[in-house]
Amino acid sequence: MVYQLSKKHPQKRAFITGAASGLGLALCKELAKDSWTIGMSDINLAALEIAAEEIKSLGASTITYTLDVSNRDKYKEVCEHFLQQVEGIDLLVNNAGVGDAGYTEEYSLKNWEWLIGINLMGVINGCHYFIPTFKKQKSGQIINIASAAAFSSLPRMAAYNVSKAGVLSFSETLDAELYPHNIRVSVVMPTFFKTQVMQYSRGDSKSVELSKLVFATTPLTPDKVAQTVLKKSGKDKFHIILPANARFIYWLKRYFPKLTLKLYRLGEKNSEKLQKRLKKKFETMDKQGKIDHDYLDKAFNERKANKVNE
């Protein structure tokens, strides 16, 4: 498959954050099929090196960077090096992010700063440093990875919801500012899919366990999301909302806001019943061999090793 993005940007230079796993890696794999040059960044150096070797084997050229996207000074250094190496940029994917859960009053302010710093400021940092080059070229594409949480504010996810709503708002502003310069913006808002976004989570164990059940039983994969994102962004689609249930939630929130609030309240009230149902679904799928335990080990069991104590 040759993506429309590859036709629009024949020099095929991309920079992707959070590229060592999940959606970031899946996007790299898809672009590799079209022989892009990809700047791959991630906070996990060991995983990044393994991922880069895989991407090179698929036909892409890679440049790797160990990067915490919340570190603006380091991001500036990385941006300058990448632009110097490839003499421009055609696609920026702000994908790096962390997921977490917990009640608002129990989730520490330090953790709020940590999560917002990555999920929102990381996106802002990338755009701040790369946009001048995009404008100078008068061409390019920016894909910001948000979440259905940008418009669906589920309980126990306050920090995550706020960060993703910020990415949506920021992307809408960028679209208006950059459109006259022939720079296109897309914001991606999927529901839960099998990613490792929770591997650095710091929230309470009960809320994280509920998240684990949701991630384990979703049929949506990073590969499917990546393919949809590249196809729709190539057609200059701004809102990329998937799958169908995410589009339904978006529609419901827009036209029936009061009903949506009632559903949030009802969901929190019956959270224990929901968890029991998900656990039963998990057990049924496990018996059928439909649970990917290797994925769960990487996405959740490594959480203890990655967790940073205050």
Describe the structure in brief.
With 310 residues, the protein is α/β, with parallel strands linked by helices. The protein contains 14 helices and seven strands. 56% of the residues lie in helices and 12% in strands.
Tell me about this structure.
This protein is an alpha/beta fold and 310 residues long. It has one domain: Rossmann fold (3-Layer(aba) Sandwich), CATH 3.40.50. 56% of the residues lie in helices and 12% in strands. The chain is built from 14 helices and seven strands. It has a seven-stranded parallel beta sheet with strand order 3-2-1-4-5-6-7, with helices on both faces. Strand 1, helix 2 and strand 2 form a beta-alpha-beta unit. Helix 2 crosses helix 9, helix 4 packs parallel to helix 6 and helix 8 crosses helix 12. The longest helix is centred in the middle third of the chain and has 21 residues. It is globular and about 55 Å long. The C terminus is likely disordered.
Set out the fold topology.
Elements: H1 4-8, E1 13-16, H2 22-32, E2 37-42, H3 45-57, E3 61-66, H4 72-86, E4 91-94, H5 109-119, H6 121-137, E5 140-145, H7 158-178, E6 183-190, H8 205-217, H9 222-234, E7 239-242, H10 244-255, H11 257-269, H12 271-287, H13 293-301, H14 303-306
Helix pairs in contact: 2-3, 2-9, 4-6, 5-7, 8-12, 10-11
| CATH architecture tag | 3-Layer(aba) Sandwich
Point out poorly predicted stretches.
304-310
Mean pLDDT reading: 91
In CATH, the homologous superfamily goes by the name: NAD(P)-binding Rossmann-like Domain
Per CATH, the class reads Alpha Beta
- Shape call: globular
Major β-sheet annotation: 7 strands, parallel
Rg value: 19 Å
Structural class: alpha/beta
Count of DSSP E strands? Answer: 7
Number of helices: 14
Strand content: 5-15%
Q: How far do the termini sit from each other?
A: 47 Å
CATH topology name, in short, is Rossmann fold
| Total separate domains | 1
Helix content: 55-70%
Helix-strand string: HEHEHEHEHHEHEHHEHHHHH
Strand order of the largest sheet: 3-2-1-4-5-6-7
